[in-house]
Amino acid sequence: MSLKLRTCNTLALNVQAMQTGGAFKVETPLGIFQMLPREIFNIIYPLSNFSVKQLRCISLTSSKFNCEVQRYLLLENAHLKFLAETAACVEGDLADVDPFYLWGMLLKASTIIMNSEKRRSFFTSFFSKNEKITDWPGWGRCFMAFCEKWDFHECEKLMKVILHFTELSQVLSEILPEEVGKYPLMEMEIRQRLRGLFLTHSSTDDERDYGFWISALLRTQKTVKFQGKLFMILFGPIKITETKRAIPSAWSSYNFAALLALLPDMIHIALLKRLSEGRTNEAAYLFHAVKAVLHHWGIHVKTISNIMLKTFQALPPINRRMFFGSLLRAESYQLSGLLLDTPFNAERFHAELSSIRSTSALMTLLAKNV
């Protein structure tokens, strides 16, 4: 039966119902339009004419409208709209509001009645319809908007799904067992995708949230060796020394301390290596750097108490006393340096003082084992 004939039959039945019953009521959010075939409904009520903000409001109106927006988002019309609006962002013609973020909020609103598993599945379907768009930072902003204010556990599940359908999981399983630098182009592609999707978005102001994404990415690898390789791919220096005047960038102590804070088992190795080589002061300052990072992220220093005690007990008695003395001196020098800074930064001084207080129980524990 042709579309025209089906439409005529539907309207004829509605007219007959009105003639026999005196009134025709369809108590649904779509009213009488609910009776129309899908093809006619899309012509009369074209969702593609609405802005993304309007579609988000429509999807929150009722479950019926929500389902209609869901259907629309997986149509070719939605793909073309998404492509056109995000292309302006890629070309640098970014409007006052980021289109990737807006589409992420629309996806969030249109799946609000679904459970977590179905929401992840829907996001996968939407990405597969638009996979030719390779603006990874843009997709990252869309992704962060979609999972905004979610529990970290649910965010990690969504991250694993994204790693799978972007084929990053497969690429990592092939690259990480090889020597670092063997496939430089692939490593740079991994770096760009992972940092774009999870680490370079501007929607997250909380550094603890940023730390979570780094930790979640590293936890996708089962061994410390592969975690270290992945960290190097993500954050390792990429400058090439081409002339005598070029100086390679050294890692900041904060970056290394952040790595140790995310992978506490490596603290034992890092400290013992320095202590065995007589670099006691360096080991003490490294410990204080890790302590400062943990305090800044809102993580209690007691999480590394067992590792520090294990490291301490692995030293001969004289080395324990030397290391403990270096810890106390480093603590004192840091406070003195901040006090004598010009201009004086009261906020940094009190932050350091607060982080030192947080280690008092650990320092007492170490003192008992001197």
From TrEMBL:
Pfam families: ARM_FBXO47 (PF24467)
Lineage, top ranks: Eukaryota, Metazoa, Ecdysozoa, Nematoda, Chromadorea
Record's protein name: F-box domain-containing protein
PANTHER family named in the record: F-BOX ONLY PROTEIN 47 (PTHR34098)
Cited InterPro entries: ARM_FBXO47, FBXO47
Domain FBXO47 ARM repeats region: 165-245, 247-370
